[in-house]
Amino acid sequence: MTSRRPRAAETGESTPVPRDSGASSHVSAGGGRGFELRADLLTRVAHAHDASHYLLRPELVVRAHDRDGVVGALREAHRRGLPVTFRSGGTSLSGQASGGGMLVDTRTRFTRVEVLDGGARVRCEPGATLRLVNAHLLRYGRRLGPDPASEIACTIGGVVANNSSGMSSGTARTAYRTVESMTVVLADGTVLDTGAPDADARLRAVRPDVHAGLAALRDRVRSSVTARAEIERQFAMKNTMGYSVNALLDHDEPVRILEHLMIGSEGTLGWVADVTFRTVPLLTHAATTLLVLDSIERATDALVPLAASGAEAVELLDAASLRVAAADPAADPSMRALAAGPGITEQTALLVEYRAATAEALAPLQEAARDVVGSLAASLDPAAVPTVTTDGATRERLWRVRKGLYTAVAGARPAGSTALLEDVAVPVADLTATVRDLSGVFARHGYDDAVTFGHAKDGNLHFMITPRLGDRAELARYAAFSEDLVDLVLDHGGTLKAEHGTGRIMAPFVRRQYGDELYDVMREVKRLLDPLGLLNPGVVLSDDPEEHLRNLKVEASAGGEDAPLVDRCVECGYCEPGCPSRTVTTTPRQRIALLKEMSSASPAERAELERDYGYQAVQTCAVDSLCVEACPVGIDTGTVMKGHRARAHGPLVRRGGEVAAEHWGGVLTGVRGVLAVADALPTPLVRGASQVGRALLGADAVPLADDDLPGPGPRREPRSEVPGASARPDPEVRAVLFASCTGEMFAPAAGGLGAAAALRALCERAGVGLAVPAGVGGLCCGTPWSSKGLPDGAATMARRVLDTLWVATRQGELPVVCDASSCTHGLVESGHRLADDPEAYARWARLPFVDAVTFVRTDVLPALADRGVEIARVGDVVVHPTCASVHLGVVDDLRAVAEAVAERAEVPSAWGCCGFAGDRGMLHPELTAAATHAESAEVARRAAALPGGRFDAFVSSNRTCETGMSRATGHDYVHVLELLEAATRPTPPTGAFIGEAATFD
Predict the structure, then answer these.
(1) For residue 188, how many other CB atoms are within 10 A of its CB?
(2) pLDDT per residue over 199-241, tens digit each?
(3) Which residue among 1, 13, 832, 965 sits deepest, i.e. has the most Cβ atoms within 10 Å of its Cβ?
């Protein structure tokens, strides 16, 4: 019963797709020019959707393999006469990431991050998310200056293209102010590294027209008193309207001017292939307070003393925002008390945060904050008494007041309406009048549900309205509202775009904001760098007065059983970075968008989309539901795909699922027998047989067997001998062990015991008693049925498990400990299968399920210490958390157990779901290959930097995930408890601990 050695990891940038993956072929290789052209309907429809309220369907979607591939794609677009739009994260809100010609995917293959100078600088490619870059910088105590709220999903490409800022960056830590250099690809394919010592000379040599033209524009602007004054006035605020013409004043060399014009240009002047930022200190200690003042005037009056006291962030929430926030049951008690008292009428809140690198540095800031709060006492609402707190839970509740606004308004919007989030900025002195005037504009146009909030310290306001853009009358109302908004903001000396970029939504109003002189300068910039006008036309600059009203996305319903689950999607894209299939097929956002498109498509288009949707969306969804963790409106696309699988099954398959649940012990015996035979046969024979089966029965029915397929594991028996067991009398039972059937189905990695045996050995040594229920060998957590869309079988298994565990746990008195995190999560989630039986449902709710890593952290490790059991430390250990450990909230427990046995335990910054998903990685190995690509590459890079050139152990908390990561990296991953068990034996193993030919006494 041994596991075959894992294959070596793939090392190239591309992710190989097996020939029998089931994918339909719609891809042209681009003639070997470093890119793939995709023209099939599903790909074009899926990529038409981004976070904005615009919808343009591209004619071609290009996936570039590298920088040269982007150059080749540009030349191909020129040859075809197609406009080009670059797409990375697709989180931009203003329409700048959508285009009707060639859409170039610059996210998938462009995710490298290189930390420089001990974290003082960082070089990134455009597809890396802000969160990923900051994760790389974390160990150095640094972060990027821009801090947009979409950091989970927004990419470096968008951060640069939109000149991103955020709630604490102000005007000093924006992308414009923190970029040091970049590699630029111009419209004609010219590549220029602005960080090279001779960059300006090279620009003069390769593009003398651009060099001379930028120098002439510099001199022209500097010689105009009015132009200089207007630029200085406009860019004293946060401002992303038009081009960054402040570069013509801020920089002398044309190459530096070009570099900074690219920032905020939204893909209309060229493409940034990589960028180097200067980073800022990571301030990890924070104190927060929520001030509810009796009026907007009092709130804006408080901004000056709050800023002077050193506040890092000051967020404003108007009365409408407070009413929405107070309705959240998870809001801070002070907020609920405010709503329960006299009510919220004219109050305005300021959410204030102070940050410092150390607790000592934070202390004087806290004192200054208390002084300011005291000085404002007469203006504060007595129903919400403020405190300056450092408590993490309290701070999280306070920030929920601000961060929950989008969720509350977008999630509750009327069917068919659009969640339209906009931003403007005005001089802080005009903030009070602007908020009041905005309220008047909302009322005049019937947007009574609008909320206003924003970064008050910067005079930066956001507001959300929910228009129905598909209704002719409502569209006219929205157009009139837009005109009034433009007049209002410009009358207050403000900018129509502070953070979100000009896009299409404000392109017709750039001339009105800047005037003819500077608008002509911007037009000349565009002519110099994109003379054919092929880069993102209609974005940033447009002479069409109705550009902002064209190509609008009309919200549709997915229809049927999907509608109540997905119609509230706002297509923000927050779900995409964590999706295992994001680089091989589709993402949750795209799956939902396609459902909506199919519901309203013509019969011919619907037939084509439905034909490809099965593989591209349903079959290759890992149903790990990490998407719901990121979704601001709580959509679980994994559950939706399970529903599609369920509806595809006929009565015979559904009944087969029930029979399997009723006789699971026999099914396991059969599976173990097949695995034993496969383990004994030559790999080519096993692989060939599985390929024939897949060809006959389908890739979604027969697993692809290969040389890393484990043999069968040990039986789950109530008692068996374990190594290093205590000779003391049996200890009192503290928990019930529900061992996962995956450990019985698949053998542990070479030299390992398996998770269940390791847990029992650890408990024996710690004197912690475990009870193993009789009949456990025929039970399962229910996940296989749930993930395959067999709810009846899942319910049958849940009833059987309940009957056993209700007795074994003494009616819920003892916790149930499971040795595989996905199975623990499956048990936690299985209760809803019994909802039609109130008594059974209530009993299930009384069963406390605990993952083994949590149980070991809280009960076993302290008991081992009390008994003086020594842990033989391992050197460097890499940890792979599972998606189930995220859902369970036990990632910290997994890390803590690893740290108990390792000198250094490390979770890769690029960690993500492995996509193995039970058997999904065997049915669709291309899914796991794509899902693990970034993480395995990082593991290899970090290993190479270690003194020995390798990690000493590789751990996780789930057998199938360990298999997936072993396949990806070429190293045996084991359950972290196996590593701990080996390290606590009276005679520890010689050689490597686990997975590298360890020997055990």
Answers:
(1) 17
(2) 999 999 999 999 999 999 999 999 999 999 999 999 999 999 9
(3) 965
Query: Stretch 510-528: mean pLDDT, rounded?
Result: 98
SS3 state at 732 = coil
| φ, ψ dihedrals at 437, nearest 5° | -65, -35
**Token digits of residue 31:** 């003639």
H or E element at residue 464: strand 460-465
Position 107, amino acid: R
Sign of CA dihedral 104, 107, 111, 113: positive
Structure tokens at 844: 């299930």
Q: Other C-beta atoms within 10 Å of 205: how many?
A: 10
Tokens of 65: 């393999």
Tens digit of each residue's pLDDT (9 = 90 or more) over 390-421: 999 999 888 877 877 877 888 888 888 999 99
Report the distance separating Cα 162 and Cα 151, nearest Å.
Answer: 13
As a whole number of angstroms, the distance between CA 743 and CA 779 comes to 13
Contact 591, 640 (CB under 8 A): yes
Q: Within a 10 A sphere around the Cβ of 792, how many other Cβ atoms?
A: 16
Give the amino acid at 454: G
How many angstroms separate the CA atoms of 151 and 62, rounded? 25
pLDDT digits (tens, 9 = 90+) for 829-880: 999 999 999 999 999 999 999 999 999 999 999 999 999 999 999 999 999 9
Residues 6+ apart with CB under 8 A from 171: 165, 177, 235, 236, 237, 238, 458
Alpha-carbon distance of 790 to 836, in angstroms, equals 17
Classify the phi-psi angles of 543: left when phi > 0, otherwise alpha if psi is within -120 to 50, otherwise beta. alpha
Count CB-CB contacts under 10 A for residue 492. 18
Chain segment 681-704, per-residue pLDDT in tens: 565 655 566 565 556 556 666 666
Q: Are the CB atoms for 423 and 149 separated by under 8 Å?
A: no
Mean pLDDT of 748-755: 85
**Helical H runs in 251-301?**
254-262, 296-301
Q: How far apart are CA 316 and CA 288, in angstroms?
A: 14
Q: Which of 593, 622, 594 is nearest to 608 (CA)?
A: 594
- The structure tokens listed for 894 are 């997994």
Alpha helices in 574-663 (DSSP H): 588-600, 603-613, 626-630, 637-648, 651-662
CA distance 566 to 848: 31
**Contact in structure between 916 and 13 (CB atoms under 8 Å):** no
Q: Is-contact 385 333, C-beta < 8 A?
A: no
Q: Is 423 helix (H, G, I), strand (E, B) or coil?
A: strand
User: In 3D, which of 386, 401, 406, 233 has the Cα closest to residue 302?
Assistant: 386
Beta bridge partners of 735: 770
- pLDDT at residue 433 tops 90: yes
Amino acid, single-letter form, for residue 689: A
Query: How far, in Å, CA of 93 to CA of 86, rounded?
Result: 15
Cα separation, 124 vs 129, whole angstroms: 9
593-608 pLDDT per residue, tens: 999 999 999 999 999 9
Reference 925, options 20, 13, 11; nearest CA is 20
What pLDDT shows up at residue 685? 59
Please state, in angstroms and rounded to a whole number, the distance separating the CA atoms of residues 867 and 702. Answer: 49
321 touches 452 (CB < 8 A) = yes
